[in-house]
Amino acid sequence: MTRAATAQINLSAIKHNYRLAKSLFPGSKAMAIVKANAYGHGAVEVAINLASEADAFGVACLEEAIRLRAAGITNRLLLLEGFFDTSELQKAAELNLDTTIHSKHQLQQFLDSELGHPINVWLKLDTGMHRLGFSSEEFLQAYRHLANSNKVSELVLMSHFSRADETASNTTLDQVAQFKKTTADLPNPISLANSPAILSWPESKGEWIRPGMMLYGSSPLDQDNDASRQLIPAMTLESEVIAVKTLKTGDSIGYGATYRCPGPTKVAVIAMGYGDGYPRQAKNGTPVLVNGIRCPLIGRVSMDMLTVDVSAIKDVSVGDSAVFWGQDLPLAEVAEFCDTISYELVTRLTGRAPLKYTQ
Ligand SMILES: *Cc1c(COP(=O)(O)O)cnc(C)c1O
User: If one looks up domain 235-358 in CATH, what number appears?
Assistant: First the structure.
């Protein structure tokens, strides 16, 4: 037996969550977002698991797309940021990828290129995110070029939300209104909704939706609702206790002595650290499940180990189970204790704790 730290991935949970996304926007096609190694869950395994039902996959860059094509994934596959130079555009055409076009620079390179066959283009409008995308005026010009180009197979119109996770903010509705105003006269399919919009903004419905984090079962919403409560977490990050000791009042724990025991304290040392991707900034009190019971993290997380106050548990011994997030401990809750979001916790796993799959 080697070190027990593992990330268990429940593939049927991902399927359930994909189907939930489709059921929330009936009739829409869904692009399963598998960028950043499927948010740390393993892009090839996740894509193979969804290949028979996913209408498309979305990735951030050509390297990610190449990996999926090499693994035999033949579904539609979109480069969410498009190509970064003309050689990438050629390669994208060869691999039969869809590309985003979000800037004049990309548009010009696309129009100047010689592609072997037409490809699907997702033209991006900036409706307030102010990261990628054309302004309304530039968008309509770009649209005219692409709508008349024989290099374009299907032309999808898209935008991206900046605050869809904030259930009390009006920004998403403003962005939808801005999108509808600009594209009102255009007959093309549209795509707006990311996970938080699928879960809470029915106004964002279009021919295509783009679920990412919700596939992995963590709600991005600032407040749970009926839809988000149906998500099933796909990852359980777990390990085992490797030592148990009882410390005296006033004893400190770990690097920097950031925690001092207010009384006699039973401590479990667990094989999990920032070398695995568990966040070093996790505060004293961050919940960890030891033998299924919530216990507080105490002391600084180190590279290979962390320490938990298990005084509340009667019997704890070496080899007992520890869970850092998963079914009974929401990733989003742990993220809050670490001043970050669930997206960062799963994408920063280092791979030392191996991914293990169950159907
Ligand atoms: C990452 C991404 C998504 C998915 O976002 P989630 O919040 O994870 O659902 C959708 N659309 C675009 C353009 C993205 O880059």
Answer: 2.40.37.10
Is the four-CA dihedral 160, 162, 167, 170 of positive or negative sign?
A: negative
Report CA(160)–ligand 1 centroid distance (Å). Answer: 8
Same fold: 11-218 with 235-358: no
Q: Is the CB of 217 under 6 A from ligand 1?
A: no
Mean pLDDT of the 132-154 span: 97
* Interval 85-102 mean pLDDT: 98
Predicted pLDDT of residue 1: 60
| Cα 273 from Cα 96, distance rounded (Å) | 41
> Hey, where are the domains in the chain?
11-218, 235-358
Average pLDDT, the chain: 97
Place of tokens 């951030």: 60
CA distances from 340 to 109, 301, 331, 345, 346 (A): 37, 16, 11, 8, 11
Superfamily designation of domain 11-218: Alanine racemase (3.20.20.10)
Query: Over the stretch 189-240, which tens digit does the pLDDT of each residue have?
Result: 999 999 999 999 999 999 999 999 999 999 999 999 999 999 999 999 999 9
CA 35 to chain centre: 8
Q: Is the CB of 80 under 6 A from ligand 1?
A: yes
User: What was the pLDDT predicted at 2?
Assistant: 84
- How far is the centre of ligand 1, averaged over its atoms, from the C-alpha of 80 (Å)? 9
Distance CA 215, CA 346 (A): 13
